[in-house]
Design a protein that fits this description.
By secondary structure, the chain is an alpha/beta fold. Helix content is 35%, strand content 16%. The longest helix is centred in the first third of the chain and has 42 residues, at 16-57.
Amino acid sequence: MVPPFSDYASVDTYPPKYQNSQMEKLGFMAWEKCSKFGLLLCSLLLSLLLAEGFLQLFPPCQTRHLPLAQNENFEYYVGHPDIGYLLKPGISGVLWGCDFRVAFHTDGYGFRNPGSWPERAEIVAVGDSLTFGFGVEDDEAWPSLLARTLPNSRVLNLGLMGACPEQYLQIYKTFGAKMRPRVLVVGMFLGNDFHEAPGFDQ
């Protein structure tokens, strides 16, 4: 006797052998994907290890710059009771690194400004090497570019290589405040400005 249609429809229409082959196929696909992911991960780790080994054998060239005044070489620097050190006034030097070689000149106070200082500067910039213009010529430092952008405003660059925020403040008190600026621009480098700051008081 043939069962009713509803009962017949509830019976599996695929034989067990076919179902097993489908499960095996799905399992093989999952294993294949895991194998590809594992191979990719191993390749990435191997690449990182090779890169690390290459850098250990052939380290990148180090950027050269002037030694600080508190170290053994005092050729370009002079000590200061409040700031710690300054570049000597009226000197010329060369900065070089992996991809640059530039000359620099200091003004009558040891900063990187062309000519003599005005009685007043509308904009004063303080900061470290980035404000000083490390890696670029005198007229390519960002305070110089700002001065050309604003020809009616005198911009004074008080950047000091290797300085920290406490020194920025002392530089402004000593040199910048008397310029009576309308705008004070502080150039910060988050890479080392804050973790090197405690060393200034030592």
